[in-house]
Amino acid sequence: MCELLAMSANVPTDIVFSFTGLVERGGVTGPHTDGWGITFYEGKGCRTFKDPQASCQSEVANLIKRYPIKSCSVISHIRQANRGAVNLENTHPFCRQLWGRNWTFAHNGQLSGYKQKLKVSQDLPIGNTDSELAFCWLLERIKEKYPKRPNNIKTLFRYIAKCADELRQLGVFNMILSDGDYVMCYCTNNLSWITRQAPFGVAKLIDTDMVVDFSEETTPNDVVSVIATRPLTSDETWNKMQAGDWQLFRLGVPVDGRLLGNKVS
Amino acid sequence: MCELLAMSANVPTDIVFSFTGLVERGGVTGPHTDGWGITFYEGKGCRTFKDPQASCQSEVANLIKRYPIKSCSVISHIRQANRGAVNLENTHPFCRQLWGRNWTFAHNGQLSGYKQKLKVSQDLPIGNTDSELAFCWLLERIKEKYPKRPNNIKTLFRYIAKCADELRQLGVFNMILSDGDYVMCYCTNNLSWITRQAPFGVAKLIDTDMVVDFSEETTPNDVVSVIATRPLTSDETWNKMQAGDWQLFRLGVPVDGRLLGNKVS
After folding, report:
1. CATH superfamily of A3-264
2. B-chain residues near A96 (CB < 8 A)
């Protein structure tokens, strides 16, 4: 199992607080020592930092903790390998072009029989993980259905959720997907999310001794949603997703989805 | 004009020395203040660090100067914008998948009439530079000719050089291209390269007060080629390329090409 983290926000926001909690799981409070990556969007552009080393020992992860890159859409992943060797080409997130935008994907879980069932012809995987192949398959399914970007974006993401339902038939498929504008998450068994907005309060990380007072870091109009494998803070109410649930965010706001789950503190 | 830098080596080699010279040109000894990027291959995987800020002021560039990431294939670029706004999506190098490998591209120069002449259907640009469009066009031309990776790699790169000849008709087209295994450079007016091998000597950077004794940094079997817009060192003999020249490297060794130019010290 791996750890996923994503953020959608209506103003460029740094993810230092949440990322600090996440990297602890990469070898300190969690066993995920097989690499990590993080993608920040800035407009249509994005940049990915990744390392096949444990995040708690990574020079590059230290940079990200110190250096508050601000973004409206962020995807991060720390890895505990179960399919594919520990190397850079197997390190999430994966990024590909579709309709002139960068699409970024990260996966938590494990699929079976994927090499037989997920056939691709153009969007070929570079590494040999189930995750990257699932992403390539998803992109080809999307392009087949929509050669051009559809105007109705909700219809598009509902179609992506249907494809994800098929992937879930092959095993555990928790996914984060973004085109920089929208951030989507899809759950099989481990995903929670929270939307923070005024009035902002104080939160404490579960994984390390760090507290943030969001009211000091934000303006009253900020809306920030955070998605993670497990809740990152101990004193806030997260939405715990159930199998087949998915949620779509834009500019921090949940805009569509299927949520059967319960709130958890 | 921008500055290009690339390396091909037979053992993972750090590029700290050459990169240190390059970043000085990003706002100190050169006017290239509109962003920079660098791609390191590790096997089939690669990672790109980029920033739309001047390299001499960039936190991330400082990390790269301190942190010797070792690689057999590296491409770097610092930008002085002439086509397309200064933002992340317009920052080189650009990376796309072809035949299950990461292909990385950086361009120095300026093209005219490119929007009319370079038509693409699938590999769409994300930003709005002439460079990224030229890369997309090149990829589509390659895929059209070779739906699968050809066995004869020299034939492939000779075809790429022919496509580059066409791009050169549109203006200045100095290019670095790599699939991680091979590194190719194509010249219109400003590219030089050097191959370093035993016996290794001492070299001094032109752009900053830094000297390296390669014999202390290498083993006798190392072969390292470096390509740059202008020679980076003052006391070595670089091969200066001429219009239409191209050179292909693998594991540090020049393996094919067309070189009409003269040696310069």
Report:
1. Aminohydrolase, N-terminal nucleophile (Ntn) domain (3.60.20.10)
2. 97
